[in-house]
Amino acid sequence: MTRVYIPALSLLLALSAVCESAAQPLASASVTAHIFAEVIPVFSASEVSQLNFGKFSPGPQGGEIIITPQNTISVTGSVFAGSGLHSTASFYVSGDADAAFSVSLPVNPVILNHNSGSRTMLVDNFISYPPAGNGTGMLKNGFQMVYVGATLKVGTLVDNPVGIYTGTFNITFDFN
């Protein structure tokens, strides 16, 4: 039997080499990562045409002029429709393609004021296409037209003398 003697110094050097290799840092790699963000078009709305009830004359009992979102007009009571143009209000709504939006119309009547006096008329029963409500509009290709009609309450000629009556109303479009 042959015995192998390992000198103590050789054993110490071998153990030192194993410990040294275990203490060395592992190999590393670095990668450049990418970040992505997309800015979408701003949601906006602008008035294209004003709500216009046209020219008319009040009769002895007054009445109403009704304009639908489809731009049809009807007259009730003793109001005599005159010549001239009438039109729905229209709005251009734009934003992210295929996004839904909501339409909110006035709940309370809107007052129209006579251009040179204290006489007024009321506008109420606002109606729109697409209809008012949550998520009723859709921005196909990033835009949609919204049309608004309403009812004008007309008094007698004493209540509503000759002249021009103007006012404003708020309509809100919410991006869903």
Description:
By secondary structure, this protein is mainly β. It has one domain. It has one helix and 13 strands, in the order αβββββββββββββ. The chain has one helix at residues 8-23, and strands at residues 44-49, 56-57, 63-67, 73-77, 80-81, 89-94, 100-104, 110-114, 120-129, 133-138, 143-154, 165-166, 172-175. Strands 1, 3, 4, 6, 8, 9, 11 and 12 form an eight-stranded antiparallel beta sheet that branches. The protein is rod-shaped. The termini are far apart. The model has no long low-confidence stretch (mean pLDDT 88).
Secondary-structure map with pairings?
Elements lengths: L7 H16 L20 E6 L6 E2 L5 E5 L5 E5 L2 E2 L7 E6 L5 E5 L5 E5 L5 E10 L3 E6 L4 E12 L10 E2 L5 E4 L1
Antiparallel strand pairs: 1-6, 2-5, 3-4, 3-11, 6-11, 7-10, 7-13, 8-9, 8-12, 9-11
Supply database-style keywords.
mainly beta; three-stranded antiparallel sheet; 1 helix; 9% helix
Short description:
Helix content is 9%, strand content 40%. With 176 residues, it is mainly β.
